[in-house]
Design goal:
With 630 residues, the chain is of the alpha/beta class. It contains 21 helices and 20 strands. Helix 3 crosses helix 4, helix 6 packs across helix 8 and helix 10 crosses helix 16. It is found in: Cytoplasm.
Length: 630
């Protein structure tokens, strides 16, 4: 079916009058592409196979037509919706309730694990028209005989690929085998892997296929930014953002359950209204926490991917990825928690040097650039703190004025203290402000640059590298040639790099003791040095990887403490043992330098490996690529 959306209005789709009244009440006018394509087919009783990304309006696409076809006189479930997570099941059930608020006597029941069976059993006995559940709990009720699907008219599989990913596909098939033969099936999935396609071919009858090809996988109304994790600790950076960035409510994503608990506790200790949800949190507590977020009693939710799936809280203005996700799809689902229903949203991503490739992969997958953000300065954080402190005074004065308040009593106390102690009122006010603030300083200390010992040189070598990067162009490498045999040596049996060009202006050449035999790749070396030296990777020059060592160019003038530190950094399980190439004496690695390597031009100081006029040092005995003299 074509994905082009005709210029339809909801009033043109043939929905039942009570459903249309609810649609008008929530403010819908024009159906989204998937709604325009799906609603007529479901109203006609056709099976539907829909492929669309999350956030395209597919819940309304199946809920509105199925509500229009309900028979309220029947007390057994007529519609069953399977969803991969508890949160999505609750969200879909709430959507049914919202769209049916003009249908008297309508009942919908979400059923999922982690909740007591008793309220679910009681509701099923009273009679419900729509059941929304997770596959495992639905199977439990079917096995107990407490869920009667004999009068089921329609089955919806929502986010089928997610149910496949979470291992629920066998349960889904078990449910499909237990529903009446004469029933309608609607299957919705963001992707169509072979197992989902097989289920569609097996259980759907001549379905109407609807494919909504999104131009991008993330909403354009979400501003995406990243902060490059440097020397400042992530928690300190997060605290600055929370203090200086205006937000209503925020979800912070961490990778592990323990990380969500730990981060929430640290934010609470800093006076922020934060809580964690993850797979270990009891369902009753999860629901209470989410309700607190909706009610404004909680501002920050720290969550894992699975725990936040399906959350739709209108207050969420920001999503912050404290830990970068492992795949691009998770990133899309995460930031989809904000910018809902056309509202604007903010997404912030913390990226470490080793995670740069993941950042680029996210940009390629979403086809949207992610802009680098500047961390709020100490000054901006302090300004925000002062503003909040002053606003508390203004709010207290305004509240007292409107309520005819109690400030008169405190005013008398201040005047009395002023008279008796002969202290100006302004000094009394300052003392009271300090008393209110307590032991926690109101302002952050001025930012001090990290320059221990002679790290001041680090700024200088970065500046030199920047100047060199602007004026240099990397020459193309010469083709590799087999090197002529020299007396006492044989050609290297393995691939090796060709003659090396002299370093570019502002650079010098180093040797590190890790190579092909250790399984190292250029990206491993760049990532380690960029991270440990807090140096942008664009300032790391050419890298030639040999069998047991590598040669690379770095900015001139690197401070000695940093060079000493880089000697100990490990890559591919090996210490780098970094040394300037023209100072290399053969002591850096497990093997001495080989005679097969000479720079193609004199080094900047005129020196050659092993010293001028000397043969390269070697050991007695044989090693790869070396044969002693006869």
């Amino acid at each position: 079916m074509s994905t082009e959306t005709p210029s339809l209005r909801f009033a043109d789709l043939g929905l039942a009058e009570p459903v249309m009244a609810a649609v008008a009440e929530v403010g819908y006018e024009t159906p989204s592409p998937i709604q325009a394509a799906t609603i007529p087919a479901l109203l006609d009783g056709r099976d539907v196979l829909g492929q669309a990304q999350t956030g395209t309006g597919k819940t309304a696409a199946f809920a509105l037509p199925l509500l229009s076809r309900l028979d309220l006189k029947q007390g057994k479930p007529q519609v069953l919706v399977l969803a991969p997570t508890r949160e999505l099941a609750i969200q879909v059930a709430e959507a049914f309730q919202r769209y049916a608020n003009k249908i008297p006597g309508f009942h919908v029941l979400p059923i999922y694990g982690g909740q007591s069976y008793y309220p679910q059993l009681q509701a099923l006995k009273r009679g419900v028209h729509v059941v929304v559940g997770t596959p495992g709990r639905v199977i439990d009720h079917l096995d107990r005989g407490t869920l009667d699907l004999s009068e089921l008219k329609a089955l919806v599989l929502d986010e089928a690929d997610e149910m496949l990913r979470m291992g629920f596909i066998d349960d889904v098939e078990a449910v499909l085998k237990k529903v009446p033969e004469q029933r309608q099936v609607a299957l919705f999935s963001a992707t169509m892997p072979s197992q989902i396609r097989r289920i569609a071919q097996t259980y759907l009858r001549e379905p109407v296929e609807v494919t909504i090809a999104a131009k991008t996988t993330t909403a354009t109304n979400i501003r995406q930014r990243y902060w490059f994790v440097s020397g400042l600790h992530k928690l300190d950076a997060l605290t600055r953002i929370l203090e200086a960035e205006p937000y209503d409510a925020m979800i912070i994503f961490a990778r592990t359950k323990s990380a969500t608990d730990e981060l929430a506790e640290k934010l609470q200790a800093r006076g922020l209204a934060a809580a964690a949800i993850n797979g270990d949190v009891q369902q009753a507590q999860r629901e209470k926490t989410i309700q607190q977020l909706k009610d404004g009693k909680l501002d920050i939710l720290v969550a894992t991917d699975v725990a936040a799936r399906g959350l739709d809280v209108e207050r969420i203005s920001h999503v912050l990825n404290y830990d970068i996700p492992y795949d691009t799809e998770s990133y899309v689902h995460r930031i989809g928690r904000t910018g809902r229903a056309g509202r604007s949203g903010e997404a912030i991503l913390f990226v470490s040097p080793r995670e740069k490739n993941m950042l680029r992969a996210i940009e390629r997958a979403t086809r949207q650039p992610i802009a680098e953000m500047q961390l709020p300065t100490v000054e901006s954080v302090n300004d925000a703190r002062v503003t909040r402190f002053l606003s508390r005074i203004s709010e207290t004065l305004a509240l007292d004025e409107s309520s005819g308040g109690e400030l008169g009593f405190y005013r008398e106390l201040v005047e009395r203290f002023e008279r008796e102690q002969n202290v100006p009122a302004i000094e009394v006010a300052a003392a009271l402000a300090k008393l209110l603030q307590g032991d926690t300083p109101l302002l952050l200390a001025p930012e001090r640059k990290r320059e221990p010992q002679d790290f001041r040189q680090q700024r200088e070598y970065v500046e030199r590298a920047e100047r060199g990067a602007e004026r240099r162009e990397r020459p193309a490498r010469e083709p590799r040639e087999s090197r002529p045999e020299r007396e006492g040596f044989t050609p290297r049996p393995k691939k090796d790099v060709g003659p090396r060009q002299p370093p570019d202006a502002g650079m010098e050449t180093f040797r590190i003791e890790v190579g092909h035999m250790h399984g190292v790749k250029p990206g491993n070396i760049v990532g380690a040095i960029a991270n440990e030296a807090e140096l942008d990777s664009k300032y790391i020059g050419r890298i030639d990887i040999h069998d047991d060592h590598s040669i690379l160019d770095l900015p001139e003038g690197m401070p000695k403490p940093l060079l000493m530190h880089l000697k100990k950094v490990r890559v591919a399980g090996q210490a780098l043992r970094l040394q300037k190439l023209d100072e290399y004496d053969g002591s850096g690695g497990s093997a001495k330098p080989r005679g097969g390597f000479r720079p193609s031009a004199p080094r900047p100081h005129g020196a050659k490996p092993g010293g001028p006029g000397k043969k390269p040092p070697h050991r007695k005995g044989s090693s790869a690529g070396f044969k002693p003299k006869d």
